Amino acid sequence: MGNLLFLAGHARLPQGMAARNVYETLTITVEIDRKYGVIVEASCTLATEHGREFIGRLLKGISLKDGLEEPIRILQENYKGKGANALVAAMKDLYSQFEQIKDK
Question: What is the CATH number of domain 4-101?
Answer without folding.
Answer: 3.90.1010.10
